[in-house]
Amino acid sequence: xxxxxxxxxxxxxxxxxxxxxxxxxxxxxxxxxxxxxxxxxxxxxxxxxxxxxxxxxxxxxxxxxxxxxxxxxxxxxxxxxxxxxxxxxxxxxxxxxxxxxxxxxxxxxxxxxxxxxxxxxxxxxxxxxxxxxxxxxxxxxxxxxxxxxxxxxxxxxxx
Length: 159
Fold this sequence. Notes:
Elements: E1 23-25, E2 31-34, E3 44-48, E4 50-52, H1 54-66, H2 92-109, E5 114-123, E6 128-137, E7 142-152, E8 155-158
Antiparallel strand pairs: 1-4, 2-3, 5-6, 6-7, 7-8
């Protein structure tokens, strides 16, 4: 009688502390260069640079904030819908709406993180919002990660 071996489902990197659990492309699509040990050898393109673990989660949050629902054809519900608020005057009320939309979006599409606190600071003079995240990432036993970024008409950028 035939048997089915499910050992392939075990985590091969469970005992490796340097293992990458999450990997994502760098948002600026920078190239990863390598040098051979040969004399006078020029740089060679190895691959596109990647972000691992926390960097991959940061990329995911940035992608979530800058994507409008319907923009991804294969996942039309992905994204946060507050782009119309970014073209209106900056105010405390709009900051509250943006904060609520970000919390709902992260809870829905980014299960790897838990939001401990989010603070949206409106800056009417610069026509932008400063977003301060306080996150926990349970899989890495990270109790608190503080992220600060700026949201304006051009997009979302980490400080």
